[in-house]
Amino acid sequence: PILYSYFRSSCSWRVRIALALKGIAYDLVPVNLIKDGGQQFSAEFKALNPMQQVPALQIDGITLSQSLAIINYLEETHPNPRLLPQDPKKRAQVRMIADHIASGIQPLQNLSVLKQMGEKKMEWAQHCITSGFQALEQILQHTAGRYCVGDEVSMADLCLVPQVANAERFKVDMRPYPIITRINKALLELEAFKISHPSRQPDTPADLRA
Fold first, then answer.
1. Is the model's pLDDT at 109 over the cut of 80?
2. Total domain count for the chain?
3. For 43, 70, 95, 112, which has the most beta carbons within 10 A of its beta carbon?
4. 76 with 95, same domain?
5. Is the distance from CB of 118 to CB of 158 less than 8 angstroms?
6. Taking every annotated instance into account, which residue ranges of this chain make up the domain GST C-terminal (predicted)?
7. Prediction pTM value
């Protein structure tokens, strides 16, 4: 497999965690979203992913984009360890939380949107993350065990950790979100989350390396 990734992309990080958890070896091709006006806009990359976004994963003779679609494919082709619970209610809760983050928070504060916000980008990012986290904290009161849904790592957790990193980068006050903070801390102790961390990627700038 070949993963087209950017060290700081939270969507790419989700996929890196999934690959690490499932023990799938892959080659990483960095796509710098800033350099050269954004390498994702090159004709070569557009041919690979018409949406001109990372991640993109070439695997089993196909090219997949969209992080949750990629993770679902990995789940179906490499079922162990599982990232979706067997219980239908818990599975629905995992998907709900993953969608809440991947559709309801992250796209509103990603690079392309922030460019449009100009000087107000920090304020806008904080607003989007804060409103999303207020809802998420409430949801987790009913679903959380050690992790987002019960005591098993799931697709929801793969979305949570990169989003908390975004929140910290945009200086969001995390004090109102004790459950999010607790789960994030527990997840960051797991090896798959450590090795996939933005500070440990081949394209991480020297000053941001762990």
1. no
2. 2
3. 70
4. no
5. no
6. 87-206
7. 0.95
